[in-house]
Specification:
Strand content: 5-15%
Helix content: 40-55%
Distance between the termini: 58 Å
Largest sheet: 6 strands, mixed
Shape: globular
Mean pLDDT: 93
Structural class: alpha/beta
Strand order of the largest sheet: 3-2-1-4-5-6
Radius of gyration: 21 Å
Length: about 280
């Protein structure tokens, strides 16, 4: 296989998981290569995501690494053999790679859980709300750059509005509901969209009100994306330079617990809908 110049986040995740399996087996790259009849450079390229791996070789590696989790191995094979050219590919070379990685992550998700503190999450945004977000970006975007990002963000709605929507749970702080990123009309329309989406069977919206006492975790913004198996779940955190993908098993456990604790103290879905409706009526 030819070397990849820029592996996607999904390809890198496969590479990382194969390295973790090798290290857990106590084998060096040279020893793993010998078991496959290749040199250590080829193993290193696979584990850097710069080279792909066939199903046959992947299953042989898993066997040599004494991995008996068949569901996990099947999920890795699916990652290795997937040739999907998703809708996001039309933006390659036009938008930052992190935008495409998030879209690909959404496409393969089995569920998604968001905790939002300052802004409504991207897949739930109206067009005007998204445009206002990108209009205030620093450094400033040109009109064409801004509209390209808005179009991409609207396309990401497919995760919840497409033919195969995923289970989506949102816990949103009252601050994100009240902050007017644009004018009152835009805010009102955004609240109305949240209300409409919250009626869908696969979408659950809960609100963290300002009146919630003694709960510091209310500031823990995160996106938790469920993979084909729990070991392949991913947490996405926003940072000034883009997005960080977190995939270590220990940290995934921390974020699962964090989401559960935040969810437990938030308003119930019915009360949350009433809360959002009351805010919309204030505008």
């Amino acid at each position: 296989m030819s070397a990849r110049r820029e592996p996607t986040a999904r390809q890198m995740r496969l590479a990382v998981e194969l390295r973790r399996l090798r290290e857990a087996a106590g084998l060096s790259a040279r020893e793993a290569g010998a078991l496959l009849g290749v040199n250590s450079v080829q193993i290193s390229q696979i584990e850097l995501g710069t080279s792909g791996v066939s199903e046959k070789r992947l299953r042989r590696l898993a066997s040599h690494y004494a991995c008996t989790d068949t569901e996990f191995i099947d999920a890795l094979v699916a990652m290795a053999t997937d040739r999907t050219q998703g809708w996001w590919e039309e933006y390659r070379g036009l938008l930052p790679t992190s935008f495409l990685d998030l879209s690909e992550l959404d496409h393969h998700a089995r569920c998604r859980r968001d905790v939002a503190v300052l802004f409504v999450p991207g897949p739930l945004q109206t067009e005007n709300y998204a445009r206002a977000i990108f209009s205030n970006r620093i450094p400033e975007l040109t009109e064409d750059e801004r509209e390209l990002r808005v179009r991409h963000r609207m396309a990401r709605r497919v995760i919840i509005e497409g033919p195969s929507p995923v289970s989506y749970e949102l816990v949103i702080h009252e601050a994100a509901l009240r902050i007017m990123v644009d004018d009152r009309a835009t805010t009102r329309a955004q609240l109305s969209r949240l209300l409409d989406l919250s009626e869908a069977d696969h979408i659950t919206v809960r609100v963290l009100p300002f009146t919630l006492e003694g709960f510091a975790r209310a500031g823990s913004t995160m996106t938790y994306v469920g993979g084909r198996v729990p070991k392949l779940d991913t947490v996405v955190r926003d940072v000034p330079h883009g997005s960080v993908f977190i995939d270590s098993e220990a940290m995934l456990g921390v974020f699962r617990t964090r989401f559960r604790k935040i969810e437990e103290v938030a308003l119930a879905p019915d009360r949350s809908r009433d809360f959002i409706h009351e805010l919309a009526n204030e505008l």
